[in-house]
Write a structure and sequence with these properties.
2 domains, 8-stranded mixed sheet, 15 helices, about 20% strand
């Protein structure tokens, strides 16, 4: 199915915002290709269709309410009828990133191709099977997620995270980025991207690596503060020994949250990258972190905890079986970077990432539906 001049409904578990998760990138890419895209927010205070940009509309829908204001949000057919009333168009493709909003996508119309994207933890396995049975295709960002829907009647495919245009553009202007970056003599630059208060992080191993590698600069991009229950209303604090450790470490630089364009530029200046999750507890949940595709775009080596989707691709990502071995691997890699970052390996990593841009992932979708 060629995805040109189509009406596409994207169903999101979170409202359209500045954080730009994958579903928003896909919405923009579809619109650029000449499709009319309707991005459905979670329940809102009003029924509205707002033009965000050319060919891209944000759809807000109120919950269904009945007598005495009681909410009957599970009236799926009523929701769907209201969506059609708002957009006043037929739908040619539905792509849902929300594993909870609808349980029967056949209610939209039996002949419409429907995709369900599995990206998050699945709490109700019986429910997800029911949902998967109502779509044509389930896309899983990891094999453990696809395993949850293996008994469903839908087609299933493993699908890597996509690389945003910000990274391809950063590659193209790498010389300018490097010329405008200050480098400390004799220092190795290690990058990390992500929320530093993520519950999946193995903070003890992360701290050990930082302590044992004083000549390595750790450049950490991502939020590290949160709303405080102890502070005054609206105040921010870290309330986290790990964050306090990072802030007091002389070889750590905390950037906080950055726009994607700036983050992409900084990552291109790194010599190596770190992925450090608690795989003893969360192996399936961190089987294919989105950040790895962004790291690989630089071409430089990624040192990681056990990562199921890359465990047999050692030239792309250097991994361990147990986290207790991660500090030693990090030291070994950092001490032999010219070998790990030699030109043939850099090219292989970079090509892996560039083969998975949003534009190329959409071409793959076209062949699957």
């Amino acid at each position: 199915m060629e995805l040109r001049s189509k009406n596409i409904l994207i169903i999101s578990p979170t409202p359209w915002d500045v954080s730009f998760p994958a579903r928003q990138h896909y919405a923009r890419e579809f619109a650029k290709l000449g499709n009319v895209v309707f991005f459905l927010n979670p329940f809102s205070k009003e029924n509205a269709v707002t033009e965000f940009s050319r060919n891209l509309y944000i759809v807000d829908l109120k919950p269904i309410t009945y007598l005495f204001g009681l909410i009957q949000a599970n009236s799926e057919q009523n929701q769907i009828d209201n969506i059609y009333k708002l957009i006043q168009r037929k739908i040619d493709l539905i792509w849902s990133f929300d594993q909870n909003r609808f349980t029967d996508y056949q209610l939209f119309g039996k002949d419409i191709p429907k995709i369900l994207s599995l990206e998050e933890e699945i709490q109700d396995e019986a429910q997800i099977i029911k949902i998967a049975n109502s779509v044509n295709l389930c896309i899983g960002m990891s094999l453990p997620l696809l395993e949850k829907v293996k008994t469903s009647t839908s087609s299933k495919v493993l699908f890597h995270h996509a690389l945003s245009n910000a990274y391809t553009e950063a590659i193209q202007k790498l010389d300018l980025i490097m010329a405008n970056t200050q480098f400390a003599t004799g220092r190795i630059r290690c990058g990390y991207l992500g929320n530093l208060q993520n519950k999946y992080i193995d903070t003890l191993t992360f701290e050990k690596i930082i302590k044992e590698n004083p000549i390595v600069e750790f450049h950490l991009i991502g939020p590290f503060v949160k709303d405080s229950n102890l502070a005054e209303s609206g105040a921010k604090t870290w309330e986290d020994p790990f964050i306090e450790f990072l802030m007091s470490s002389p070889n750590v630089r905390l950037y906080g949250s950055l726009m994607t364009v700036r983050a992409a530029e900084i990552l291109q200046t790194m010599d190596m990258f770190l992925v450090c999750y608690d795989t003893s507890q969360y192996l399936n949940q961190v089987a294919n972190p989105a950040k790895i595709i962004e790291y690989l775009s630089s071409g430089n080596v990624v040192v990681a905890c056990k990562t199921l989707q890359f465990q047999d691709q050692k030239e792309l990502v250097a991994t361990v079986e147990e986290n207790e071995d991660l500090p030693q691997l990090f030291q070994e890699v950092s001490q032999s970077l010219p070998n790990w970052n030699r030109e043939d390996l850099k090219l292989r990593r970079q090509q892996f990432a560039l083969n998975r841009t949003y534009e190329k992932q959409i071409l793959r979708i076209e062949k699957l539906i």
